[in-house]
Design a protein that fits this description.
Layout (H helix, E strand, L loop, with lengths): L4 H11 L3 E9 L2 E8 L2 E4 L18 E9 L9 E6 L1 H10 L3
Antiparallel strand pairs: 1-2, 1-4, 2-3, 4-5
Amino acid sequence: MSYSIARRLEQYTEKRPQEVLIVHIEIEGEPDEIAIFKGFSSSLMRPTAFDPDVPVLPNQAKILKIDRAASPYNPAEPRYLQQGLTWDSIQPLLSQVGV
């Protein structure tokens, strides 16, 4: 079974609750930043739908980069563990936790 990109990243943060992923994306030419923490996704730039079936990170989104930060996440003073990951470069981390 193939999981969506969003679901795989959410599962990663379920298994690594000490981390927050900040996903920088582009949807139809518009930038957005998605915070993923403990299995939940939320936009940092747009309203997030109350309906959990509405994806915050749609499959057609272009991932520009992914940053790993330590939780709790403070946008004024983030504590980055790693910055500028691509979808390809995060694959080994996803594999380490089995997602």
